[in-house]
Queue: 3 jobs
Job 1
Amino acid sequence: MKNLKIYKSSLSRIQLPKDATSALIINYGEFCYATNNAIYRSNSDLQHQLAVYDNFSMVIDLSTTKMYIDQDVQIVSYAYNTPWNSFVVGCSNGDVLLIQENIVEVAFKCEDVVATILCSPDFERIILLTEHGHVTLVTECFEVLNNFNITETSLAEKTLVNVGWGKKETQFHGSEGKDKRHVNEVIGDGDCADDSVNVCWRSDSLLFAIGYFNKITNLRSIKIFNRDGVLQSISEPLSGIEAVLSWKTTKELISFSQHINEKYCISFMEKNGLKHGEFSIPSTINVKQLLWNHDSSILCIQCVKSNNNYLLFLSCTNYSWQIKKWLTVHDKVITVKWLPDNSLQLITADGTYYILHWVETLCSSSSGTLDWVAVIDDCSILLTPFKQVIIPPPMFDVKLIFECHVDSVLYLPHNQNKNGNDICVVTDDRSIHFYNYKDVLYTKSKTINSILNATGLCNHWFWLNENTLIFSLSEVGNFHFICILKVDNDSINITKHPVDQPIVGIINHKNGALIQLSVGNVLLWNEELNQIDPHINLPEECTCINIMDNKIYALGVSKRLFENDKVILNNIGSFCIRYPFVLAATLNQELIVHNINPTKDSNNQYRRRVESGSKIITVTGNSVILQLPRGNLETIRPRPLTILSAIELIQERKYFTTFDLLRKERINLNIICDLDPLKFIDDLDEFVIQIKDLSWINLFITELDDKNYLNTVYASQFQQNMVEELPNKVFIICSQLINTLNKLDTDKYAFPLLGCYVKLKRFDLALNLASTNNAFLKHLLFLVDVDKLYKTSLAEYNLEMAMQIINNSQLDPKEYVPFLKELEKMECHYMRFTIDDKLGNKESAVKNLVLCEGQFDKWLKYVIDNNLYAYTLTLFNQDQNEYKIIAKHFGDVLYSKMDYLQAALMYNQSTERKKAINSYLKIGFWKEPLELSYELNFSELEMNEIKANILSMLSSTQKFREAADFAEFEMRNTELAVEYSIKAQDYMHALYLARSRSILDTYLENNIKLACINTTQNLISDINIQREKFESFVIRLLEIKVDISNESMSYDNLNDTSSEISSVSSYRTSSTRTSCRSARKQQRKMWNLKKGNFREQPTIVLNLKQIIEKFDKFKDDVKSMCILLIKLEEFDLSVTLQTSLESLQTCILKNKSNIWPVFNETEQIIEDAILLNPLKILPDKSWKLSILE
């Protein structure tokens, strides 16, 4: 489906002398030419194409060469040896010269004149062919491998043999018919046959072929030799063969021109000499040379027609050869050559040097049309609208025929309002033909003849709008122009804009057109201002360029795909665009759909495998048309394109088409409602009316999900970033759909209604609908598990429906029917209890059992067995006897579980409230049991016993302060209150009670005083211990800091490699998997105060911090104890206590700077965090008593 175009061209002038006899292209921009006596080579810079080549260096001049200075020797043939940078020259006296580094030597001598010298592609073999057909095959060192005359009769190594298939007349010939049974006699070519000898090598240098005229058979024959000159095979007898011979670069076939009856053909031959097909070419031309590009995808035919020189360029698809380009050459072609970069170079007799870079191109209409693809075939255009029909080449849908050869086919870009199906055709006589598409027919609307008389090359034709065409013009002298063609009725106006580099592409732009130059620069032609300005620079030269969303997408020669100047994909063979996707076929058999917009999951690429060598032809709807290497077409539907098409259809409210598309492509149907849920709900009537098919509606209901698939599953394939989600989507849509279906026709849409009920898990409503028709019930059984429906019908106490479900299912009637019959005989509430108990609805079961008369013992046992106390309590009032009985049993259960508080609450509401007192005491409550005791009017003896139990409980739980209050206020026992105050170390309160109640005696005072002195002494001891620890920690901390400073100095002298080696972990230590116990053990080791521990310094600081925090707690205790001691006349002891704490405070303030020194900013990054957060220590004196100082 592809055409050929010259995507880059340059025309230069060569200053050839008049006596130049031949020329030879060596490399890109490098060539040589020869006269009768001399060879000259160009001295150009290969990196730049020159306007004029006039700088040549002489390779050899026989007239000045010492060995031929007195002889009339001329140059007959020559060849260039690339690896050795040398020339092999054949002279008229039979000498073969080797010229290397200006050294000339006679490498070989022939008895006859060497008319042709041909090196093998690997330059390891050289063929020397004389005028009389004598062939000498030599190595690169001119060692003779073989020597023979081409006309000699000899036996080939691989002679064809008859394998016994019978005569030609008796063989089956298939579609060729019976006429092929007769062997046609091969007629000789006659006296007009060309008797010249021609030779060609195969690209791998293993074989070469020689064509010659066989005078015995009066036919031209072709002999195939191996690289050592041994004859392998001879061609079968064929008439009409011309002296044009070329081996395809892909090695399989030899090509040659041939006259067959009245046809003129290019024929092919296998290496065994048998013909392998042909194709016709215009009979008006005369073929001079056949040239294949590097991969044999393009055949160039050098020919002459009516004394005019042409180059024909052909390509093959599905074994059909088509002429894609007629290139007119205005003078005789001296030499022509394909180079590996797919550039064709030729030199003409007038000194014009062409460099033409060829590329395959696709001529397709823009999006929004019928997706036409145009294929050029000589004077015809083969058109196929892929939106309507997919036809593989060489077949077509519409064919347009012209009088001249077609050069280009143009379509309007997609931003034009004009019909995008119209075409503009440019022919090789530079005429322009406009065709309108209407009513499935193309009709010619206008023709403009011969718009330009310049001799340059016109390429890159671009139809910008109805009246404007743009093309490039390359003229001799390496001049390049952008030409703007304005059409006004029958008159035309052409404006030329010169540019510095060859033009390689033209595309549309909102302000005009973008022109890409060969160096990657992109220029903008502003239509309104009619001027060209720089626009953007691409990283490299690009062979294919397109624009979408004001961004340029270009495929570089390095097979990288650019978005403006950024690489987005690599290894790309072809691409096309459809907003918002770039579709690319890679060289490693993948199709990539790249979303140009960022996606929510950062996955903006969809990939799938395709056949090797596939290239994108066009995109139509949700289909990508790929062409395989042989020419066949393959249609695939990438998921992103399908979703994009579905979204467009949903927005157009084409629900039937959308549903059908998603169902065929196996895409979740949720996206129908996920794009705009509220709009979809409003369109439910339209949705149901369009779909019609009940099975499709059921399928939609089945796939409904609360998840928004456009935001989750298809997020990377959806062009928008986020769509608004509908909470409780399934519930809302099913509810609205139920209303819609009921409004339309309940019986008709019963199946979808059942699906909605099942989706909402409203099996009761589904059973109600299914009960009206046995077919509905069968459908419901298909949707829902039969056991679930059976249990649902039982839960509704609908025994009749349960029986229908059994009869319409595979359930065993013997197992279920007796149970149903038994239920029918039961009392209503007891039947419901039995059903609920069987279904596991315990609460409903106990409720129904309670409603049964005379079943108290049974329901009480049921409550106890199933632990239904809390629910059963809600069925009675608190003043009912049943409530109190249940509360008592509930309390027992809670008491057994040691939940004494809730047990007490339940006992308090039961018939056994006394048990609540014991439960309260179990959890340490004493006010609640007293309150309950007073409420129950206990006797004095019982009250005393309860109070004793409370006091014992408070004492055993060491709640001495509460015990003191209880003894004082409830038991009226001051002495006991004083005793418990002393135990609580509340000496001030004990002293207050003793003095305020006038019970203070010597014994009691001594007890208070003794307890106070003991507490003070313990406090002094604790303070002194903390001070000693603090001082020892500070001393050790200073030692550690000194050691660290000494070690850091020695570490600075170590080589950096030591740290690198020590940081390498083994496979045993690189991954740590410790248990919790090991982790705690490791944590204890980390904060160990053992000398030498690697975290000893932060551990010491942590301990010092804890001592300082203890000092803050000591201050209040010391102050209160000092006041009490003064009241007890223990003045000396109070002074000692205050002095000890003051000593600890002084020690802390003195060493604060040693513990937390002020670090600079760099050190703070390195040090441990605990060393960087000092406590706020202020010289506080508020805790001191000044009378003790």
Job 2
Amino acid sequence: MLQLLHGSHQQYDDWPPHQLLVGHQGRVNCLLYPNHVHPRYEKSHLLSGGEDFAVCLWDLYAGTLLHRFCVHAGEITQLLVPPNTCSPRILKCICSVGSDHSVTLLSLAERKCVVLASRHLFPVTNIKWRPLDDFMIIGCSDGTVYVWQMETGHLDRVLQGMNAEDVLNACDENTSNVVGGEGLGLANPAVHLLRGLRSRNILSAIRHATQRGIHQLQQLHHSSHHDGHELNKSRAFPLLIQGLRTNPKDPESHILCFDIEALIVQLLSEEYSAMSPGTLEAQGLINNTEYSKVAALTQSASPDAHKKIAGFIGKMKEGVDSVHTRLQQKAELAGLRLNTGDAKVSGGSNEMSRTKICEANLTMEIAQLLLSLLHAWGLDPDLDKVCEGKLGLLRPMVPVSFGVVSKAGHMSLMLPTWQLCVERKEQFSAALSIDSSLPKELVALERLTRQFTAQTHWELSTSLTTNHLITIISLSSTLMSMNNASFVAEQERNRKLQRGQSFRNTANTLQKDEAVEEIMTAQQAQIKQGWSLLATLHCILLPDKVIQAGGKNFKRPQVEMMARRWQHHCLEVREAAQALLLAELGRIGSKGRKALVDYWGQYLPVFQPSESATTGNTNNTGTPQNTGTTQSLDQVPVSHEEEEDEEEEGIEEFSFRKPSSASELKRKQTTAVVLMGVIGAEFGQDVSLDTKHPHLQAARAHNRDGERRKSSVVEGFGIGNNNLARHTSLALTHLLLAPPSPKLPAHTALRRAAIDLIGRGFTVWEAYIDVSKVLLGLLELCCDADKLVPSMTYGLPLTPAADTCRTARHALTLIASARPDGFITTMAREVARYNTLQQNAQTLNVNLSNYVLHRAKTEILRVVDLLIEKMHAEMSSLLIEMMDIILHCVDPGHLKVKPLSDVFPAITRFNQVSHCPTTRRIAVGAKKGSIALYELRSSKCQMIPAHNSAISALAFSPDGKSLVSYSCGENKLSFWQTSTGMFGLGNSQTRCIKTYSTSPIAEMSRLNPMRMPKLVWINNKTVTLMLADGSETRYNI
């Protein structure tokens, strides 16, 4: 395919490169690339069978012959791979069939024949497997069936007639049962022992029976830690080449099938495998260290617990090191072998590099090919230069025939003859700079190619436009997140060099030349900017660019296809679909959004506020990211006035029709929930906007992930007409809180989309939902965040449970950032209820360890710490509520041995909070002038009316006997002393023993949250008041 792309590779004498494997003495009958079937096989292994009776094992990377199996007495006719449920020894074998009616199992690890089945009298026509019973069943052309034992290699029985057919049919039934039941019904290991006794091979039987039992335990352990549907997923490959021939006499054509998700996963896997755990942590891809610090606060602080935690952390570190070692080994096997300093340079090094053609980064070449074919060449000449010079993309020399594959496996392909019907435009017939480097006969074709890439490509189909734009944006984002990810040969060599240096931790690595490092940093910045510009062109600027180029029939992306990918399991595809959908919703204007709402609003499921979450509904679907090919609406262009053409371009009218099937109705309801949620969250009106809290509005606007485009509120999502907002919020809440069921499993893309949209548009849904239930439902999903979830920027797909957990965590962060006061007060109210339950737990017979607030302490602390860090001024008015939450989450044992500033340093940034380790008390000053005094020994809180204005600062004396408080609004400083009864019995009483009037401070200094007053004790009798203007005043008790 590269020969159809213009680039410097065409100038090489030895191009196109090829590899010749010489080893057979005659015709090659069959080929097998076993890694294509299952990843347990080496990537570098290729097997071939020929008419010379031999099976050859090749190393694709080195181009060498590893081993020749000469077992058959006839030509090799077929090569097969045993199923995945065989014993560990058989899993390393492949099956070969010869024309001499023999079948063998050849071990690639042991380099020998394990089983030779050669007693068949007629040609072999069928091979079946019963791996759980250790049987290989071979059917011959005369109807005879031979049953062979794979472990021992003995012929178990020979069947004919109806018995033979029954055995073959039973094999098919057994295969379906294994797929449905996770392959856990393993045969009893004692069966192998009995077979060994019968065949007089006792030692081998004992060994295989033991291995079988161990394998059974491993399978059971593996199944208990993984979801079933994850095990059944077939492997995907970035590129598959399929032959196509419409007539037996025509030459064979080839179709290139790209799997975008597999390509992204492979790119990120290679990138992450080259990083150490410390590098992953430093780049924000994982956050185990920070999260473990917060999680440790919720655990017991006893010495025994410390030992257990230390041992657990040690095991975790060993596990991380072992994972890193395995990743490094995989990277080396994939062609990232490191060059050591002791390596000798031989004269044949160039020849060796020529033979290792396949060892080049094939994944990057596939990405280069795909992006080169999809990029809109000719729309932005400056960007084209960047793509060719910095990014390494190749310009197509011929128009491309694109196609799409439906969910059911049907393919729609455009044939090359369509090029004859394309009318050439004058602006594309001018001579181009690239024409001089092409033969004369290709100049006209290249001009047609330029017209195709800039215009015709985007006028073919809405499905093609949607898929291609999501592909370009997601791949650009992936490559932008990688280090020096460029297709230029020199940049690729530098990237591999950096990968090699990341494995080594030597003095040479630490002593890099600063000039070289600056050059590399500048190049990396230019490459990242290039990928960003490429994504911006196709996400935002493409429609206008195509129209400026003369296009009149631009096929816009389908909003329903992007909505169904709103929570795609691949993060890069998910973010690309979200960005493209939001850009399209903003581009169509208010009338276009109104048309979408009018059409999709009829499919929005209706829930009553009192409806039980267990109610079954037709909107419960499994995975809405699987897109169908059936269009449910007819797109008719509408004429508009000239002044509205630019803003409202592309508005559609939708024809209403009933869904043709129940599955289509479910798909439309799923799309409606997501689309209404996106429109409401991004273009709905904040129902609680008022002028009472302008600082909260400013904080919310500052902390949202991007500006919310609310220049025109969609009807139904405003304050006056809130019908759609109410119904959408109820649907999203139902999807969040509904218990798992066959119709709505626990972890689906639809449920994740509802969680994400609740967080994005919480200010719109807040008036119509039960905030406490929503927050507790999100916390329920975050209970195991430390075990499942890396950071939000970790690109590799997660398990469904981990993905749901990560989405819920992000939604909690968005809700807390948008409504910090609502989050804190709601959590404080739930903590008060929890404490009431805790006091009456034995009476009510309640198991508090299963309660959400008990299991989600780590996540609550994380959010509180985030709010203090990001919204320090807003949190100053909620200190008592925050302290209630913190004391609930932090284990009391920590405050016995360490001060509050060491346990949870974020809260001590407020001068209104003071902790006395001696008396084990915490004092918190409230905005209304009262002091909350927490007795940690008795877990009680005493409220003291201290001032008539907000308390600005307070502090305990070093001996803990006195407490001083100051209110700058009241200009008063007070000393407090706590007294108890004789021998510490009775209730403690806190009274004011002295009061001072302080000098007033300027209004500007008083309201500055960054320069709050501070109280510092000099000794047990004297305290210094430090004001915002820099003055210091001493006061004595």
Job 3
Amino acid sequence: MRKQKNPGYGSTMYSTKVLNKNIVKSYLTIGDPYRDPHQVEGKNNRHKGKQMMTVPAKDTCNGVGYFEKKTYSSDPLHDTTTYLAAQPMDKRKSGFGSKDASRRDEFMSHIRTEQYRETLQTEMKILKAQKKNQTTEQNLEDFEAFKQQRKFPEGLAETKYLYDIGRSQTTEFNQKSHRDTFYTMRTGNSKFKRNNGPFMLTSEMIGLGADDVSNNRPTPKGASTKHDDLEVEHQSLNPTITSSRYRIPKPSGKGAAKSASSTQNLVFLMLGCFSLGICVHVWQFSADHTPPPLTEKFYEKEMVEFTTKFGTFTVELFPEHAPKSVENFRKLIDQGYYVDGPGFYRNERNFLLQGGGFLVDKKSPFENLPVEYSLPSTKGMMVIARGQKSDSGNSEFAVMMHDNSEANKPSGDSPGFTVFGRVVQGWHTLEYISKKMRSGFLAKDEADRQVKFDKVEYVKRLTNDNPQAKRRLEELYYKLETRHAVNVFGTPGCDEMAQIKKIFLKHRATTRSEEVWHAHHAHPYEIEALEAITGQKTLPIVYIDDKLIGGLTEVQRMEKEGTLRTELEKSGALAESIVWDAITKNPLVVFSKSYCPYCKKAKETLASLGAKPVVFELDQRADGQSIQDFLFRLTDRSTVPNVFIKGKSIGGGDDTQALYQSGELAQRLKLAVVSFGLCGSPSVHTTPHTAPTRQTPMPMLLAAYLDRVEAAIGGKASTDLAELLSLTRCSYDVDVASLSVANIQQICSSKLGRFDGFAEVVCGMIKARKHIEEQQFADAYTAQIAAVIKFMEIFREETNWVVPFLHVLILDTRMIAMRADMEASEKAGDEVHDNLRGAEQHLKKGFSMAANDRAPPEHNKKLGALFVVNQLFKIYFKLNTIHLCRNLIRAVEGPAFPEFERFKKSDKVTYQYYAGRISMFEDQYHKAEKCLDYAWKHCHKDYVRNKRMILQFLVPVKLLLGIMPSPKLIEEYALEEYKGLTEAIRTGNLQSFNECLDTYQDRFIQQGVYLLIEKLRLVALRNLFKKVYLIRQVHQLKLRDFQTAIEFVTGAPMELDEIECILANLIFKGYMKGYMSHQKKVLVVSKANPFPPITDVSS
């Protein structure tokens, strides 16, 4: 980290610019935010000027605050941004600097790095422009000096999260935080001095405390807890805990300062290695990333399994790294020390879980151990807890819930900590315990609230000596243990997997689909790990409630026998559909537990009003816990009772009682009865039941809908994400009509904030959905384009898993743009295509990113480019700018584009359809026939409409080339316009040809084939003249014979000159072989094949 010395005081000072720019991903963690800034004396103005200042609003501003950034005194740029409620959400912090902010100092307690980054970008542009204009050596020297003086950092890192100085909480930069997430006011005899009234943190003060900066990334609210998704920070610990307890402390400020000082000594070494790093980086991208075949076998290894009331977790011990600690731990297990006694008594969320003693009188019979450190204390590691002395560790241990890489290192007075094991299975159990336990230490009189270990035993678990294979094995175990009761593993595009999903969809079971690629370079050793777990070598594979079911055959067999529904009910996979059915089909529903006194009181209150609710006793149901978990996701209430009236939760027992006392409960029940009809007799559901099909389904709440979106993004389930967010297919009915745009944005930020830009993309699409329901298509287009622009930023950096979502986004954008243009055309009274033209520009960017992607083959996005090409084709045809299609065709046919047969069949069919039409317009009929014929043969037989659209162009092209459609084909695809036309061409009946052309003229013009049909007139004449030749059987034919034939079929005379002209055209086009004698009015035809087959005639 870059730093600058504060001369004369011996403390480390940091420029805010350096803080905001030179930390990895610009995340800030301040060790001691409450340091008194007034204790540092003599701080001169020169250092003050280099800090970024936050200025509170004046009393005269009427609640409108502003955020001012002061740069170095010599800077030409002084940027002041006013934050008003009317500003776009992506440019301000919601609620801050406006009347809805509860406290002015809430806004002052944050570092707004995102806005400051934009200032730096502007300044860098100014400097680049200045440098470009330098012409003399002296000017260049002045410029470099000026640049050094301003201390511009290298690079422009993205900043997506703010760090709350006061409470060690992370807040999404566009998400409003509440008062309880900020620091508590400290006054009086507090150890943290705060003078001059309310404490306003400014960057000047932050600068003084910046020697405690750590560059570990904070975990945003709602972040994923997957092993591969977490990069975490250390949460500050409770400073009031006595030193008698064994603790795993967060590294002190001194340690961080020392680390920062050592970082300075490595700067030159890092700069020296920079060029080498670039070479390695280039080599990595040019080399083959396919890992070698897995030579190490999966085998079973003895591990330790802890059983709690919340579930189990398994620990792998490291005797080779901490032999004494592991030996002592094994002895304690053998003596049964950990069973029914010393459980988890300390919970520091996002940091650790600690247990193994303290709250019980049971003491370890073995001697204390010295510290053994050799491994970093990263997430999932188990460390020996100890007291102040280095040899005080014994029975107590802690599981690191997040990284704390400095805990095991000796620093200052701390001798470090021993890492002796790692959690390899059951991580979801520890996450659940961390959520359920109260934060901090439990007191001695709270021993009954600790999470005890019911059983601690040795078990055999799979592992592998290859690190990549081992990691993939643990990831698959985690996916089987968490999130969903039904897991389906299969390959993308697999027909059997699609059939399995349809079966579960029919039962309305909540499933999770995991796409497994048959490619070692995509997910190293994924197939091998899955085979080791399941013992099966074929896909797809279905798990229900962590139990292997098998593939499609087994699922179909279970469905036929009726056991599939039973398994789904036991697993809780039907909990979501059961809840939805209950609250949408009944006016009053109560989810309760039979032994709960609060539930009993709520039911008595409802009964006193004569209400007859549908009651679900969750403690008497096999799927009760699954239903309660879904209710928590749906209503944010984790307890019972949970009372629903007209499909909406009114809360629990206290809420029901409050509504009863105010008289509002009776009114709501009356309205519910009117809405749903009279309540029947009361019913109590204690066992799983077959969920009836909803006739009028209630729209899904946005929060529940976003839970599915979050799961799809977190699991990189591309197909599920595309299905969820598609506007044109609308598989999910989401309740957005009752929400304002501001509410939608706030909910999206809260649910999806951990996925950076995805929150903005999804928010834009949901806004578009709302505007579409309101028939405001111009506003829908604006919201959709905002989502497209943001997604293009994500698409540039992501791998190919986002390609299916790109396709959905592009398709929706084109459809919305067309509908918005229709709306604008109706208002203007003239045809308008402004929105479609705008959409075309953004689609071209998507095509460029996909087609020019240089990522390795396993992550390459080129296979998604053809779909974008097809959408651009449709736009160009709509805008009547077909000539622009030729550029796309050249790109597809170019050497840099992937092999055509590698693309999806649907994309290939669509491309060939449009390529054939384009070739037809360019009079390249053989190429047109080839393309359209490919589309016809590969189009799915069930898509009759698409096949008919292809035939509308393929039939006239083939007619021109002499191939007649069969009567069966014409009848099957309702091509009645070609029935009489085909017969007229075959027989050379010009009168019938003209009649067909007149009858279907409008249809041919609308289809764009009228001119092509006109060219078929020449084919009909060729067939007529061939009949004349066959009748005469001579090689010298008089023009009068042709004149007579035409008069016979048309009933109208024709001049010989016109006949001569027609024959000349037929000879020129190759339909006839011969020459004419103008003087003798004779046609001389070739003795060898005078009328060659039309199929041989060049277009």
